[in-house]
Amino acid sequence: MTNCHSPLFKTVIAVVLTAVVGLQVQTEVRAGDAARFFPATTIVYAEVNQPAGLIDKAQQNPQISHLAEELKSIPAARKAIEGKDFQKFQFALKVVEAKLGQKWPEALSSLTHHGISFGIDPVSDGVAILMQAKDAESLDKITSSLVEMVEQDAKSKGNDPPFERLDYREAKVFKADKFGFATWKNWLLIANKSDVGRTILDALIDDSQKGLASAENFQNANKSHMDNAIAWVYVDIDAARAAKPEEKIYSNRADDPGGEFLLGGLYSAFHETPYLTGELLPIDSGLKLKFSVPFDRSSISEERVHFFGPEGKGTASAPIRVPGNLLTVSFYRDLSQMYQRAGDLFDEKANDDLAKADVGLSTLFSGRNFADEVLSGISPQMQFVIARQTFDDEKPIPSIKLPGFALVAELKDPKTAKKEFRRNFINAIGFFNIVGAMNGQPQLEIDFESIEGGELVTTNMVPEVDQKPDTEARINYNFSPSIAFSDNLMIISTTSELAEAVATSKERLSIEPAEDSGDVQNTAMLLSVKELVRLVVDNREHLISQNMLKEGHTQEEAETEIDSLVKFGRLLKNSRAALSTSETSLDFTLEVEINPGISPRE
Fold first, then answer.
1. Residue range 247-257: average pLDDT?
2. Phi/psi of residue 527, each to 5°?
3. What pTM value is reported for the model?
């Protein structure tokens, strides 16, 4: 009976995984060096070259050291550190370090000195990790010491040796129940299947120049790899699509308007793209994750022009910034064209539902065709804005404090369009009041006011009888639905505060890529982690109560969990995401900034 699941064995594996996950500093890497040893049928390949440099820089970087200390101060982390399990982990780690004669970062640096590669091969159902150590002597010392420790642990518990020792050509093989590993010169191979292990060992010993590195898709993907990438991943979409052609992402159909609006462009890309690449890159005070697929925007099909724009150059407008701005999503979507192409894009049920909706909407807009005449008057450049709202002490304050939400659209003919939208907004409020009265809901009062460059139609929730201003009111008091018009903008908002803030805002956030890059940002998202944390703090008591009810935690446990979330959030600053096209690719990028306030001097 093997003992691969003993606490000591789990400790060794946990140390390796924890350190690998933590490698987030700049280094020079070259993708594809070890790909020639993996089977040509490998469907997912990832690697980190020179992890030793990452570990060394991480140890020497005072900001990373300070960040680690900040993380330790988070209530949940502090509680875990003080727990018995972590103390046992620390003891086991010291035993490992004593046996190796060096600290675990040094051992890991030596073990992975020239690189770590990972691959998944669907043909053999194999998963493999390949590491190149600093030298054969270091590798032999580390692996021999760890195997000896695990075997001694098994023996002390009366269990059989966990590894069967074998020789394969010039390599030493250690085979366990569900996995095995092998060493050859300064190479360490870990695999879950014998077939994939033998294939990689043969390629290593024979110094193969083929394997995955010879595959056309991989060679093309490797050309776009950035030299300063921390990590790089390749996925063979051709193989994945052939294996499971029924997967929704490859169908080129969203079937419903919501899915098409959000993901229509991705359906176009994944319907034909041969591969996907991903990179983790260093940026100032943070990290950038980028995924790319080959994409010819000049040959976009007619049914997807609504998503990408003519010639694939539909550009999102500069995001609007308002006080308390939590999230802004700016995007290019031509709703009129999407509506007109419904027959090609959606299934029968969705088209039937749209046909019914079209009758009612056309009636509301004085018999005008909704797709051809109403939606065509709205520019494809739109935005979605979310912001924390403030509450007047003289009015009922809701127990759950929600942010405000606003849809911002550009009108092609503001003078004509705003009359119809204003009238229908007022009609909708009247309808909601009638339905609300029947269900005992508070009523909405309508008010009109002029603002710079336009007008504002607002509503206010009428306080209930005997409702005191300082009483925590029902959730309805988060809402004061409003519509605003400013120059060519129409803002439909859940709160009058946000509607006015957007309508009068003069601040725009830059999302433009470098002028010579040729990239066009189709969708851009900006998230303020600072405001998100403030929203959590606003609702702290409610979140603690919900945590106690749903998770069964004590008040102390619930407070620790919520306060840990707040503490962790304060370590971050902003996050940006974008979907963009170039002449040859479709790219999704995500950037996360560490709070610059974190400093060793604090």
1. 87
2. -120, 130
3. 0.84
